[in-house]
Design brief:
Layout: H1 3-44, E1 51-54, E2 66-67, E3 79-82, H2 84-90, H3 99-109, H4 119-148
Antiparallel strand pairs: 1-3, 2-3
Length: 160
């Protein structure tokens, strides 16, 4: 029986199980990160609610100008959300600002966390873990096998 081949087969099976587990458990957070980035982009384009204002400061009609829906899991009672056009209509101080600046200012004034979704960074980090960890174990396992076999390369022919 070839120990080296058997250990390699164990590594292949364990690596495949690891990749499958990371895919199953890592897909949901990654998809949520892409969803947050998409929601933030559509808020900047003015097509969705994404500009937070404290609910005691809201103007206009609920579900027409603003909503207390929860785009990014915030407290329903404290934070209400405007679309860009409605925000600029009821709060003219934001009218001359860029959408990005307006977004940052409304988060700061609402005293809430400004999410900075970076889905591509998260994806690359995940790929690094999925590829890097099995390769690390392959290299360490190969080095240990080589060390325990007495640092020999190929078996020598001593029949000279």
């Amino acid at each position: 029986m070839n120990i080296k081949r058997g250990l390699f087969r164990v590594w292949v099976v364990m690596s495949a199980a690891y990749v499958l587990a990371v895919g199953v458990f890592g897909a949901k957070p990654l998809l949520e990160e892409f969803g947050k980035a998409s929601e933030q982009q559509s808020a900047l384009q003015g097509t969705s609610y994404g500009f937070p204002i404290k609910c005691e400061q809201v103007l206009g009609e609920k579900d027409i100008d603003w909503t207390n829906g929860n785009p990014w899991e915030y407290d329903y009672q404290k934070i209400c959300w405007y679309k860009l056009d409605g925000l600029r209509h009821y709060f003219p101080g934001y009218a001359s600002l860029s959408p990005e600046t307006t977004l940052k200012m409304t988060y700061a004034r609402a005293e809430t966390y400004f999410p900075k979704p970076r889905p591509w960074n998260s994806l690359l980090e995940g790929i690094g873990w999925v590829v890097g960890l099995p390769l690390f174990f392959l290299v360490v396992g190969s080095a240990l096998y080589w060390a325990f076999s007495g640092f020999s390369g190929r078996p020598r022919n001593t029949d000279l």
